[in-house]
Amino acid sequence: MLDQPAAQIPVSQRTNPERSFTEEVRALRLGEGELFRGEGILAVTKAILQSGVAYVGGYQGAPVSHLVDVLVESQDLLDELGVHLETCTNESSAAALLGASINYPMRGCVTWKSIVGTNVAADALSNLASPGVIGGALIVVGEDYGEGASVIQERTQAYALKSSLWLMDPRPSLPTIVRCTEKAFELSEATNTPVMMELRIRACHVTGEFVAKDNVPPAISRNHRLAEPAAHNYDRISHPPSTYAHEKIKVEVRQPAAERFIVENGLNEFLAGERSDLGIIVQGGITNVLVRGLDRLDVEGKIPTLVLNVTHPLAPDQIADFCKGKRAVLVVEEGAPDYIEQAIHVLLRKRDIDTKIYGKDVLPMAGEYTAEVMTEGLLKFFAQSANDIDLSRPRERFEAVRAGRAEAQRLLGGPLPLRPPGFCVGCPERPVFSAIKLLEREVGKVHISSDIGCHSFATLAPFNLGNSILGFGMSLAAAGAVAPVMQKRTISVMGDGGFWHNGLLSGVASSMFNRGDRVLVIMQNGYTSATGAQFIPNTSGNRRDGETTSDIAATLKAMGVGWLRTIRTYNVGTMLKTLREAMSTDDKGLKVIVADGECQLARQRRIRPQIAAQLKRGERVVRTRYGVDDEVCTGDHSCIRLSGCPSLVVKPSPDPLRTDPVASVNNGCVGCGLCGEVADAAVLCPSFYKAEIVQNATWWDRLKWRIRSKMIGAMAL
Amino acid sequence: MKPLTILIGALGGDGGGVLCDWIVAAAQSQGLGVQATQIPGVAQRTGATTYYLEVMPAGARISATSVLALNPAMGEVDVALATELLEAGRMIFNGFVTPDRTTLIASTHRVLAIGERMAMGDGSFDVGRLLRAVKERSRAQILFDMDQAAEESGGVINAVLLGALAGSGKLPIPDGAFEAAIRHSGKSIDTNLAAFAFGRGHARGELEQAVREHRKRQTAVQGAEDLIERARRTLPVASLDIVEEGIRRLTSYQDRRYATLYLDRLDTIHALGSGELLREVARHLAVRMSFEDVIRVAQAKTSAERMMRVRAEVRAKDHEPLAITEHFKPGIEEIAAVLPPSIAKRLLGWGERTGRLGKTYFSMQVRTTTILGFARLRLVAGLRWWRPRTSRYVAEQTEIERWLGQIRAASPLGIDLAREIAESARLIKGYGDTHKRGLGNYRRIADEVIAPALAGRLTPRAAADAVANARVAALADPEGESLSRTLTAIAGATSPLKQAAE
C-alpha cells in the first residue's frame, strides 16, 4: 500500500506538497499603491514582476526556493503578463537561461542557492559576463551562511570579482530589498553586466511591508513574440577574439559606468552621525546586526555609517570621500577572505589617505557575525580608536551576560543532546540505510560515498554511514579513485534529484566509460524533497502537464548499464539481499540499485485530505500503524539504532521490576512498516505488531470481529 | 523606544512558522511595528528550528532609522517560547534566557533526541537539571505540559503556546487579536481556538493540569496469596513491593513452586543483612527467572488485557474492528531453547556443523485477531508446564545460581561490590542477537572483573568501581569497543597472581 508508484497519482491530485501559496499568489497581484505584506523573498518576486521581466528561472535550494515555487503556483498571472518560467534541472541550466539577454532587450531573473549553486553555474556565468547583456539580467542567490547553513561557507563575492558581475547585498528591510531589485535591472542595462543579489537566510524570511506598484508586462514576451532572431554579431559571442575585447570593455567601460550608476542612484546608504573622526563601512546585509550592536554600546546614531547595498564594485570616490578626514574607519565584512577591506586599503593607499582601517583585526575572519561577535568587535574597535567614548557600562553588561551564560551552562552540566535533522516518519530512504547497516554486520565496513539530499542525514546518528560528500550528484564520481584501491566494492548513494542535476553525466557516464566496478544506489522518491518537494524529470508530472518526462531505469539502460535492479525500499530483507548480490556478483561493471519509494512527506500531504474525504463520505478506510508490546520489549533500543524513525520513541517501562525505558510507537506513525521489517531482517525481538484499524467498517467486518472477539476472549489467558 | 523581543524554539513539525505568522498578524492588527525572521532548519521532524520577532510598543512606529534586529542577543530577550523542554534548555544554554529580563513560556514535555533514544539503557537528559536551570535562569516562568494540553483540546501545540503567550500579558496585544489571527489563517480554526483558550487558561492559572502520571502495571494472578503472606512475615517492608510483584510475576510465568524457589533464593540474600541489597536482588532475580523464551512471548501476546492495551495505544474506537499481525522470526537457537538439554545440544551441534546456526530463521507473521492465529499462540503459551524441562531453563538456573553465589561471596568483602554484581544482571536482556551480546558482556565482566575481585586480586572498593565502570561501558556501544577498553584498563590495575616460587 505504501510504495504506491508515483505514476499512479492522478494529475488532478498533484499539488506542490510543501506548502500551498494561495496568500503569496494573491500578494503578487497587488497594484499601484497597495500595501504588500510578507517575507523578503516574496518581496523580491513581486519586485521582479514590477520590473517587467520577460523570463524567470532557477534551481531550488534554501532559502530562495520560494521564488520559483510561488511562481509555479502563479501560472495564470505569468500567462497574463507573458512571463516565461523555466524550472531548471540545475543551476548551470538556470545561468544559461540568462543567455537570452545577450542578444535581446529582455529582462530576466534566475535564482539558486549559493555558494554551491554558483559553483555549478560558474561556466555559464563566465560566458554570460564576457559578452554582457543588453536586457537587464538579475541572479538572486541565497547566501546560505552561518547558523542553519547547510553548505560550505564560502562567499559569492569571489564570483562577482572574478567574472566582473556586480553584487548587491541589500539591507534587510523590504523597501530596500525591493528598490535594489528594481535598480539591479537598471544597473545591469546601464552597464551591460549581469547583476547578482545575495540574500542571507534571515533576510529571505524577514517579514515586512512596502507599497506595491503595478506589474509590468514585458515588451518582448511569450505574448509578444519576435518575428526574426537577432542579427549575427560575433561581438556577442564568448569566443576569441571577441573575448579579448570583452575583457577590456569589462574594466574600461562597464566598471566605471557601474561606479557612476551606484553613486548617481544613491544605491549605497549613508547613516549620519556626529562623530566626524570615526566611521563604519558595512555590508548592507548585516547592517541590522551592526546598528543594534551600536545601540548596545549606547553610540547608535553617533557614528557615520556607509551601508554598502552594492559590495562589488565599490564606488572609489564615495569610499575615499567617506574616509577622508577620519581617524579610524571600521569595515564590517562577514566571511573570508576580506575582499572589501583589502580593496579599501589599496584604494586609500593609492590616494594617500591615511585613515586607519580596522576590520578583521577586531572582528573574526571566519564565522557569522552574530550579536555577540559584533558586540565584541565593536568594543575592541572603539577601545583602540576612540578612548574618549566611555564603554565601561556596556562592557560590564556584556561581561555580565557572558558570565550568566557560563553559569547557565554550569547548571545544565555540559552540552545538551543535539537534535540533528533526520529522516521523516515513514521515509522511504531510511530502510536502505538499515539494510546497509545489516550488510556491514555481514561483510564489515564498506566505503560509502554520500551525496547531497535528505539521504545525507544518514551520515548522522543513528546510522553514521558515509565517508565523504563531494557535491550534488557527485557520489559516484567521488568513488572513482577509492573503488580501485578497495578490496570490497564501494557504495555510492545518490538521490534522484542529484541524479538529474549532475549524477547522470559526471557519475554514471564517467563510471561506465572507465569500466568502474562500483555500486550505486539511487533513491527514487520522486521529488527534490530536501528543498520542498519540487518536481524533477522522473516525477509523475511536471509543471505543465501530468506526464512523467524521463524515467531513471530507462535512462540507465540506454546508457548501457547492465546490472540494474529496482527495489521497493521498505522491504529491508530484499534490499539487503540485493545489496549483498551487488557487492559479490562477478559482474565487473557499474551496478545500480534504484531504491524506489515515494517521499512520505509528499505522500502524506497528498493522501491525508483524500482519506479525510473518504471518511466523511462514510467509505471503509483501513488505517495501518505499528506498535510495541511494552511487556515484551526489554529496553535495549536496537530497533532505534537500526531505524531511527522519529515515531519510534521511548517511554518509562510499565514493568515495576525494570528501570530501562522501553520502545514505543507514537501517534505520528504512518504505518510504513519499517520497524517490523527491521525487527524481522535483523532478528531483533518479537515486540513489534502491526495494527490495522477498520474505520467505517462494513457489516461483514463487524460480524467477523464480533465472532472472533468472542472466541479469542474465551481462549485468552 | 525599544522593541519587545521574542525568541521561539521549536521542533520541525511543531508549527513554529505558523505561530510566528499569528503573532505578526496580531501585532499588525494593533498597528504595532513588527518584524519576524526564522532559521527554519530542514523540514524534517527531528531538527530544531528557531524564530525571532521584535514588536514595537504601542505608539511607536518603525522609522527608517529604527532598525529592528534579525538576530537574538544574549540578555536582550523579553519572552522566550519553547515547544519542548530541552529546547527551552537550549535557549538557556545559549544565554538568551536571563533572570533579569526573560519570561520563559515552555512546555514541560520531552521529545527525546536521537542520541537519547538510541542509548542501550536510559540515555535521557536529566530533567531535574533542565527544570532547575529554567527556574534559576529566567525571570518568570509559565510551564505546563503543552503536548498534553494540545491533546486534550484536540488542537496543535503551537496554538497552545500562542494562548500561553496571550495569557502571559507580556505583549500589548489583546486576546481578540490573537484569536482573529487564528481565524484569518483559515485552517482548523475551531481546534486551534480551543487549544488557544487552553493555553491562555493555563498561563493565567485558571486551569489546573493533572500531571500525566506513568502507571506501573502489576501482574494479575491468583493463588499466590500464601506466598505473599510468607514474604510479609519474613522479609523487610522496604523490599515488599518488589518481592510481591516478583511472586505474582513468577506464579503467572511458571507456577507456585517456581515462586517458592524465588523466595527460597531471596532468603539466602536476606541472611546477608542488607535491606538495599535484598531489594536490588529481588528485582533482578524476578526478571532473570522470568527469562524471555517463546513461551513467555506467547503468554504476553495472548493475555486477556493485551487486546485492550493495543486498542488504546493505536487509538481504535470502540466500534472499530482491529487486525493485529505479530512479527516472529525464531531461529535454531530459539527452537533448541525449548527442547530438553540433550536434544538441544545435538540440534545446536548440527546447526554449527552445517553453518545454519545464526543464519537459518523462520519468518512468521501471525494474526492474533483471527481465531486460528490466536489459537496457535495460545498453544505455545500453554507449553508453560514443559518449561522446566527445556535446555534454556536449565542453563538459566545455572547462571542464576552462579550469580547469586557471587553476590553471597562478595557480601563479606563489601556490600557495594555485592550490589554492583547484582546490578550487572541488568546487561542480560532482549532476544536473539541482543540477548547473546548482553549475556556475552555479562560473562566477560563476571570472568574478567568479578572473579578476580572475589579471588582477592582487587580491593573490594576498587572492585565495586570496576564492575560499575564495566557495566556502564557495556551499555555505551553495541560493538563492545568501550567495554574492551575498560576491561583492558581494569586488567592493568589488577595485581597478578603470585607465581609459585619453584
TrEMBL record, chain A:
Keywords: Metal-binding, Oxidoreductase
Domain 4Fe-4S ferredoxin-type: 624-655
Entries under InterPro entries matching the protein: 4Fe4S_Fe-S-bd, HACL1-like, Pyrv_Fd/Flavodoxin_OxRdtase_N, TPP_enzyme_TPP-bd
Pfam family of the protein (one): TPP_enzyme_C
Matches recorded under PANTHER family: 2-HYDROXYACYL-COA LYASE, INDOLEPYRUVATE FERREDOXIN OXIDOREDUCTASE ALPHA SUBUNIT
Name under which the protein is recorded: Indolepyruvate ferredoxin oxidoreductase subunit alpha
Source organism of this protein record: Reyranella humidisoli
UniProtKB/TrEMBL annotation, chain B:
Segments forming domain Pyruvate/ketoisovalerate oxidoreductase catalytic: 12-199
One Pfam family from the record: POR
Record domain DUF6537: where: 241-448
Origin superkingdom: Bacteria
Name the record gives this protein: Indolepyruvate oxidoreductase subunit beta family protein
